[in-house]
Amino acid sequence: MSLRLSTVILPYRRWSEGGGTAWTRAEELGFHTAYTYDHLSWRSFRDGPWFGAIPTLTAAASVTDRLRLGTLVTSPNFRHPVPLAKELISLDDISGGRVTLGIGAGGNGFDATALGQEPWTPRERADRFAEFVPLLDRLLTEDSVTYEGRFYSAHEARNIPGCVQRPRLPFAVAATGPRGLKLAARYGQAWVTTGDPKLYENGTPEQSVEALRGQVGKLTEACAEIGRDVAELDKVLLTGFTPDRGRPLESLDAFVDFAGRHQELGFTELVIHWPIPDSDFAAEQKVFEQIAMEAPAQLG
To answer: Which pTM value belongs to this model?
Structure first.
């Protein structure tokens, strides 16, 4: 399968001050999907401008025609399935069926405490995620949903007319642990990983490739357990969080080498960060655009 190239555009610029130009340029460059982060604030950007994911994607839908749009990733940290489903159905309608929902269990970042709660333990995050995903699946496929769970409830939640994409918009499930991988196998149209975070500081690119090989193997096992062919799932690598860091964006050749190694593991989509000066995602815009235009043809 040919390797698709996508980008993630962080929502840190006012729309009136150039916030929309990256989205239109992403479509011109031929990216498959342009994602954004669904956070209330994020890392080094916490004390600067940061805008909401769903309104940003709605605006992006209005200035593009072909580009797919999505989140990387939405989590239960500050989302409830009932209002989220309504927003996603609306966004899917506005975009003409171009939305992918990247969805994950969340972590211990700023989102985890912004509503005043104590950060959930890894087990509680997994428990909530295991309830969140099936309920959201129902809300996006059924006209009316009533549900009473441990963490989430819905009472005659109406979602007519449903998604433009049928039976619903695709889920790209971020997971590396066994429970998350089972959710990806059952509910995902794609699986997302950033690699093994333990290798980011002191690991090597070779160790990262082996770790990713192991993750793909565990996904394959999770699919086999329910009789699903793992080839049915797209496999998405969000780059920038492996020991390679930003080096793949230093030149076209460097990126093609990096991408080829991961394509051999079975990845079908690589996501690269839109350059942001003076940040962890700094890169030469000219090289970035060359990669977007020329790398897919070299990767077949």
So the answer is: 0.97
